[in-house]
Batch of 4 targets.
Target 1
Amino acid sequence: MFRSVLYVHWKQVHLGLIPLMVAAFSLPLLSVQGLGGNGGVTSFNDTSLAIIQGLQVWLPFFSALAAASGVVIALSSWNWDHQLNHVYALSLPVPRWRYALMKMGAGAVLTLFPAVALWVGAHLAAASIVLPEGLHAYPNALAIRFLATILLTYAILFAMAAGTVRTTMWVTGTGILTLFILGLIGNDLLAGQFEVLRGTHILEWALAKLDWVPGPLEIFLGNWRLIDV
Amino acid sequence: MSNAIELKNLCWKAGKSFALQDVSLVVPSGCIYGFLGPNGSGKTTTIRMFMGMMKPDSGSIRVLDRSVPEGMTEILARVGYVPERPHVYPALTVSEQIRWHRSFFSRWDDAWAAELMGRLHVDPDMKISRLSKGQTGKLLILLALAQRPELLVLDEPTDGLDPVVRRDVLTATLDYVSETGATVFISSHLVHELERICDWVGVMDHGHLVAQLPMNDFKNGIKRLRVTGAPAETADAPFHLLSRARDNGTGSTETWIVRDWEDTMRSYFAGVGAELRDVVDLDLEDGFVELLRSSRPASAREE
């Protein structure tokens, strides 16, 4: 049963996912083009700095690509079922929770595809460049970070996309509105009530908690360097 | 005899425009039950209720001796369902769709599926998005039959199909039923189609179950009578008067549409000083139309 779910998900997503896999494979190779030292350099010198700086411009593309992969896989999970008003899914003799779990599992397996493509590309990229002493390539770490980012994006969007468009709009809208109200009004109200909150902006605090260590979205902004000290 | 489907006092409201009102329906096991009603009468909503896709506001549902929704997974494993609109995945090929469907049904019969594919001329390599309406209809019935269901629920399965395909689909269904004794619940607004195959019939209108009776009673019990000197009051009549109208230019002659008619009731007219001039059998479609007409309030009839 799971194999069927996986196959159908692949059929749904492959047109979107294959270009992303090609991009994931190519990105590490592109990022090291024109970089590299002569070998045998003994100290952390200009070449090393040039390599690190050269990689810097590519970093946002890695997290963006991971996020895009997660989005494509998640949205395709429910796409056909939404189009058919879930009539087919609901007529199958399988509990709804199990069906959702199989869908989620199939999507999770598919997140491996771009991650493996990136892992292969990263290893090739690492092998194609001679690194000065003090610098190391981290293709495995990069691929794991890439996979984790896809999974995070996928998990969030899978849950959101499972509902109807109306439900998704409600949840998103309510979330944004709550943050907005907290930011504009709630801050003064709460600060008036709780001394500990004085001088703290709740909205800024919440956003910081989301994307800074150990926030759940920190992974998007972390260290995406294939080559580092 | 047990019942394949039992609905008791089912109520459900959708805004102000539509409601299922106190629908109680019984489908005996092994019968072919025709579910008639005009578009928008609540047929599909009723089906979705007992298929566990929608939850009623009140009332109880039992299908194949299991309660809905508690026993839904078990029930669905024994039910072949063809929905009103095709529910198959358009980007798959026919054989991919069959593989997908098969993986969920433990009673799936590969040999029977292959035989049906040949009989219905379904191309396994064809992409579903490229199938014609008729081919899609055949595929849906193939999927429903090859899982060897005890109950087939067909929601307008032949709507929009050409006569040849319609016959293919119905023949395949009837062959399966005669072989296995499965129960069929078939909804349609194509009255003639059901007349030939059903042995029970239920009629829906405006969210009400207007009538539910064996097909023979339906066909034989609804008559058009021509009556001269008809009495104004018919409360003591042994039959159920659905409608009456004075014939044009014939003085005191009226046309009555009656239900539950039996030939022994002719004597009633002599007793009330009237003369029964003619008794005409109505076909199912006329009977259906008269039944609907009589069940609707006067305001709705005038519309």
Note: The CA atoms of residues 49 and 255 of chain B lie 40 Å apart.
Target 2
Amino acid sequence: MSWWETVRSGLSAIRAHRLRSALTVLGIVIGISSVILTVGLGQGAQREVEEQIDALGSNLLIVSPGSSTSSSGMRGGFGSASTLTFADARAIADPDVVPDAAAVAPASTSSVALVNGDTNWTTSLVGTSTAWPRVRSRELSAGRFFTGAEAEQGAAVVVLGPDTASELFGRRSPVGQQVSVNGTRLTVIGVLTSSGASASGSSEDDLAVTPAATSSRLTGSTADTVSTIYVEATSEDMLSAAYQEVQALLVNRHGVTTSEADFSIATQASLVETANETNRTFTVLLGGVAGISLLVGGIGVMNIMLVSVTERVREIGLRKALGAAPGVIRRQFLVEASLLGLTGGVVGVLIGVVGAQVLPRFIDQAVAISAVATVAALATALALGIGFGVYPATRAARLTPIDALRSE
Amino acid sequence: MSALIELDGVRKTYRSGSVEFEALRGIDITVETGEYVAVIGPSGSGKSTLMNLLGCLDVPTEGRYVLAGDDTSELDEAALAAIRNRRIGFVFQQFHLLASMPAWRNVELPLIYAGVPRAQRRERAEAALARVGLADRLANRPGELSGGQQQRVAVARALVTEPDLLLADEPTGNLDSASSRDVLGLFDELHDAGRTIVLITHEPDVAARAGRNLVIDDGLITSDRLRSAAPAGAR
């Protein structure tokens, strides 16, 4: 009996029990499509993060207050302390002390309510220097950023993120308009282009940027502290040199040792690595759950094949009496189980691919379908069919024709 | 004329737990090519066991069974399957047709296992169905045929491989008397055409159609006699 003959006979057996076959296949369909989607989600998230690092440039150092290297004891966690100051930023900006820093931008962040007429909108107010657009790789869609003179004077000017601008001004151009913060009027001089969500998940499109002096006047803060200092190295190769220079400077200025540093320095790459690790954990976790559902689907195939063997004992006996060797019978049932598995795999892949197109419309997350994952899913489905078909097929092959023929 | 079947001191013992049961207790039979033999015996006499052995569905515990020159005692399952396929055509009491397939597909089955190409299979299946008078029922499923017609399809399936031996186990057991006459008439025709037929039955009037009657009782052949003149092959 040729292979093609065996496949045809398997197909007709599957067709003879349409509903049962469909229900059997369902388990594999669900398993395969969820594997494809979870892997796709993980890869989509990873790709987004990678695109962000490409956009931001990989020669950025991010200095935060507090220590992330030692979170035990009395030490505050990452970003919780207020140990960095504008003076630190100015010191880093000194080309004699940190020769490998190309640009330095301190940023203090606070939450404020912006008011335009009767519209008000709470957003984060970033007080910074003129180097901010450069280190954050941001551009303006309208107007301009503030100048060095304005920064020094603490001029009443503000640059809005695109979301903030549309919340306050709708479709009108905000440039030249006024917003007030705590009763102080600021002139909108520019609007940023959109950057998309950041790796940490908070929107980079909803913010208001003012000179540092303006922001501390608005929030009434007298302290000189900043929440972040962005340092751009002269090139990617100079990143570790810049890292060491900044670290040495700050350790010296704060009068601490390296091991008890009250600040931490992260590179863009290390942030991305952290984000990717989280993504990977989720992918593995969800993929594991999906894998278990695949296993359950495979057991379903075995279950149905065993039922099918029991139901077709007489047919098996007859086929044997007519000259089917045990190997031929085994092959027939194996092919049937593989066809069930493969059918489930193909349908599962189709649902996964369609899901990858539809899902991003409901959740803010890209889904990447990789050819490798798809082929692997199909191979898995086929292997499940074969693997879980072996036992029922062997049972069918072992039936003796006499007993099989005599059963009612 | 040559011996198609040679049974030589055949014993068959079934074991169920510690209980042993000897179904056949030393059978010696020779059947020549072209003979029409009926094996008669009450239930429990061992005739089903004999039929299983003759059909290569089972192997003897002791003794030798030579079918058309092949000693089957030493063969494994796959080799026995090949012998069944090539040398034996089965007709069962319950017809054993596959309900989901039309008549010609049922008849074609043994040819699939014999590795006959598709086009040739259909041709031979149609010829076999025509031989049993069902040329106009090729595409009917078993459920659409009468009992007699179903048994004719089964006979066509048994004949399609041109086997050396036609082995019928109570072929009229599930048929009314008209259909029984019909099927037995078909056997007579096949015998006249030179086929070797071994028929197992418990009905004396069915056995009366055969040229030679073997009576089996309690695992032994108790009587072996020729009824009519001579087997067809000897004429």
Note: Residues 114 and 181 of chain A are 5 Å apart (CA to CA).
Target 3
Amino acid sequence: MFESPVIDTHKCDGCGLCVSVCHLDGLAVVAGLVAVVGEVECDWCADCEIVCPTGAISCPFEIIILER
Amino acid sequence: MAAKLEFLGRIPYFSDLGPSELESVRKLIFEKTADRAEALLLEGESPEHLYFVASGVVKVFKTSAEGKEQILSIVRPGESFNDVAVLDGGPNPAGARAMGPVLLFGIKKNDMAMLLRHHPSIALNVVRVLAAMARRLIALVEDLSFRHVIGRVARILLEHAGGEMGGGPRLTQQEMAAMAGTAREVVGRSLKALEEEGVIKLDRHRIVIVDKEALQSIMEVPS
């Protein structure tokens, strides 16, 4: 299963700016709210997070330490 | 045409204008479209037009001699870019690129000057827009000049790291920025710098700390 940006549907106002900047065409506004629709794995560029005016979509990082 | 007038009325430059004033603005506006990643302005060129974003998003940025990019602003619908160069007549102080397909409303530099001379209410609006822009950039300058943000980012990474199998909390760059008391753009720049130093590796949704000792040293540099 692919990792996808996290969407807070309570904050999303369906403006679609994130859809317009996703270079993998992975997002769409469905019934007034943004949803992940792409079949290509998200590359975590975080452009959707940068442009979202309401903070509804985010690309959180898991931080891990590589033990040597 | 009515929709365009309504949209123009919501742009901060033209808010609180009467219908006849708005109509005189509309006559001077031209439309321009651009595709994803298309350069809209080149740093250092002479400006000919001021742009308002009608749909889509535009990134305004500076590029260093080494090709590093520092985002200055993200311009969303209703907002403008290239204000400074059009208003002071100097070269474009930054570049601009479409982040996706965009529709822009443009106005020629001379037409904008004419509007400012004949419509004091527009001039007052422009002063407000420029003041807000100056306030935002002053905050960014403060972050970039006086704060050792990279050390704070190093601390945040170490404090929130899980083991090789993960298990720690997930953090967005916005959340890291809030924790470090800085702007998201500065966190992004710090992460890139740490990756270039070989201390961390950005791997899609993972930040992998590959040199814990080096990250600790960076963290311990006084702010």
Note: The first helix of chain B runs from residue 2 to 10.
Target 4
Amino acid sequence: MNNILTITKRELRGYFSSPVAFVFIVIFLLLSGFFTFMVAGLFQRGEASLQAFFTWHPWLYLFLVPAVGMRMWSEERRLGTIELLLTMPITPWQAIVGKFLASWAVVALALVLTFPVVLTVNYLGSPDNGVILGGYIGSLFMAGAYLAVTAMTSAMTRNQVVSFIVAVVLSLFLILAGFPPVTNMLVSWANPWLVDGIASFSVMTHFESIQKGVLDSRDILYFLSVIGFCLFTTSIIIRTHRAG
Amino acid sequence: MIQVRDLKKNFGPKVAVNGVTFTVERGEVLGFLGPNGAGKSTTMRMVTGFIPPTEGSITVGGHDMVENPIPAKRLIGYLPENAPSYADMTVAGFLDFCAEMRGLTGDGRKRAVGRVVEMCFLEGVLHQSVETLSKGYRHRTCFAQSIIHDPDVLILDEPTDGLDPNQKHEVRTLIRRMGEKKAIIFSTHILEEVDAVCSRAIIIDRGSIVASGTPRDLKMRSEQAGAVTLRLVDGNGSEIAAKVRQVAGVDRVSIVSERPLAVRAFPRANAGSDDLARALGELAFKERWPLQGLQVEEGRLDEVFRRITLSDTKKEASQP
């Protein structure tokens, strides 16, 4: 546990000593503000909810989260520090979890900094703050799932750009499998149960229901299993890479 | 401290290390020699637990590296090839992180960092970030990392690579001093280093150990080990060589250089080089040769190295 925390601390220091974390947080705040107020028109809707805010998260994360996570392992491999890290008296698993938690903390910080939007709707009306909290929790878990995917792709290559692009493509699949325009198109030629089956692999399906305020353990379990699966795959990639 | 038995490593169809066996005890400095790509780094990476061996066993301080890596890794300090370190950290931050990973806390950690900073002369760059440092400083930073927990076993992959002559000298002195209490493996392709630092050396070529012994033993394998070289201010080379050939115990004579004249006499298998040197000295005195020097050759490591590692490549090249 101590080792995990040590690694997390180092990674966080790495994020904040380079512009990565600042750029991510600023751009995330700007874009989410822009989409919430200008595109979705939070004020014009006349309803006291953050639906207009959360709807954009799967799409914002699609590009921003892989940008945060792409260096996680590829940079270690490029610099050769992976050789230092993995010859320390720790298990690879501790390193994987430590790094993952650090990047997740950066995203969590960005989410926390969106608090003015919560204050705004509370000032203008009386929203259901439970639903808003649920939305935040769902959003955080969704970001965790994207990050775990990025951890996996960054372990595959020493090139951050490759890691970014592959992560975006995989995350896009996670979105599109449950994106209504796509599922509607699938329904016309596939069995509904098959479409439902595919959609159940999508972050959209699960994020949607959390966003509505239904904090179902199955949805949380879904995100946790995506995270667990991807981090497990990361450990296998790292081990095979070392084994040659 | 370190026991390595029948170590093998394949990368796909390529055999990188093929049956390497050696042990290193406390108080020994083992030098790894070999041409590039011979399998030195791969062997060291397996010993440090970075890559798993395809076959064979590694124990460090009694702990099996494959079965029980954590206690084994705890005993090891490792300087990887090219001395990597986190570019975005300061030297102090990096060393602090490494100390923390080694389980050092509080005052102990502060003392450990202070000690290696002093040993590796890093005071001046302590708060500079690693990416702004020169290669020598970066190298020393990573070296400092490897000794921060005062490990019993030290594994150094080309520890003097990229250092200037003064720094090389410092690092060698440091290794030799630490070698009194630790088990050290280090790789190099600078042969003088082996002489200066190692208590024992292994030459690796294409994944196998082709020679091992103390630097002195290895040098004895040299062709010119035991030969006596006669240096004269001037003189007729062939005439002098002919006279030297008459001396008892001389097997053959070669003229090393004409001006200044150097003639080398190789003793017969059963003749001692000291007797030969005395006889040659007397001959030079009797003939009134303008003698400049008389020297019993120790043998040269680079010649041994070349002969052992080149003969193999030639053999392979001549195969149809």
Note: The radius of gyration of chain B is 24 Å.
